[in-house]
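Write out the 3D structure for:
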Amino acid sequence: MIPAPSERRLPDGFAVRLDPRTRRRDGGATLLGGSPLRLLRLAPRAAGLLATDRLAVRDATSAALAARLLDAGLAHPDLPAHPDLPAHPDLPADADAAGVTVVVPVKDRPAGLARLLAALRADPATAGLPVVVVDDGSAAPVVAPEGVRVLRHPRARGPAAARNAGLAAATTDLVAFLDSDCVPLPGWLARLRPHLSDPRLAVVGPRIVPLAGAARGWTSPYEEIAGALGMGPHPAAVRPLSAVSYLPSAALLVRRAAMGAGFDEAMQVAEDVDLVWRLAAAGWRVRYEPAAAVAHEHPARTADWLRRRAFYGTGAALLAARHGPAVSPLVIAPETAATWALLVAGRRWGRGAGVGLLGWTTARLARRLARPGEFAPAALAAGLAVRGLAASGQALARVVTRHHWPLAAAAAVGSRRARRGLLAVAVADALVSWWPHRDRIGPVRHGLARRLDDLAYGTGLWAGAVRARDPRALLPVRPPR
């Protein structure tokens, strides 16, 4: 069970800053942004407090507004690299890394473990931290340097059980989980720890970046820009059905009091996603902080990379059994799905009906955006409607080529038109996803790697759903309201 979060408010001195992508309208009284996209109207007093893009907590009112902005995904913490906030009961009073235990689960990876421990000892900010290594049934028992505590499972019980063993052994308020194929970069902890001054924050995760000097393979350039562990360059609130819906357990800083029994030991995959979603459901905040970075040694051999992708896909069925529609591969409104169905019908009447439905959606959105007594902002509504339609089109293409590729392939076998459509979608999806990274990888390698990625993940997804006899990981859902 996950315990309920603290009822304490954000402390004085805590600050938030509006996301650069958040749009201010009506003289700052209306905010539009977040993920999923939402509209927030501010009362006059709240709008006065948010005169600039930065809000510092000074009292209960500003704390409530800052919390609302955080929870809406419209703003992110604006914190120093080293906490200089007043003493707070949720954190040790000192401003260094004290109060953190590092937990490292490992199985048959002695060189990686030695590299990680050396990096921790070489960084003055982490050199004195207590370290617990959990040997999860390695063929050769782990031998660690003096000062490192080693716990051993005679037989492998899985990464969730290994992390839980380390969590139970820790006595500090905070625990940093680091996998043995990771190397934290300087400053990682100093950038993560101030987030825990939010008494409702349970977990914060850094950006996972490629490990410099590690072995490279044919898929390495693609992995560096579209890896399963990479959450992108923007800070974010982490919750289901949002732009950043999970954090990989390769590197996490957690509040021990929020973890309850910890990771679900029955899950050999996706246990990190499950933990984040259980914390969010219990009312805790979870955040992604890309200013902190931890390097990870990605698989270099293509066969290993494909097996890992397929393995990740099998976790969707396990998540569906625990969280239902949160794991859906496609979040789409019925009217948007109908618009696309009409537009691709190929006939004149279908395209006309699709445009008409888009116009109806735009008009309805304009009414929602309008302030009382003012004209509906038709231009803004039209722009948002078109942008939403384009985003849903990309999501549909992704589902066709990734999650539901077995169905798409079956349709292509029996229909020339379906073959042409599938080829067009696959090429367009590859080009659109490649364009922002065109200076780092060529279009052919990117396109081929993306299709291999999708084939492997989709295979694992369907295998997991069939094994669980549960189709929920394959079904679309409506957007949350």
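The radius of gyration is 24 Å.
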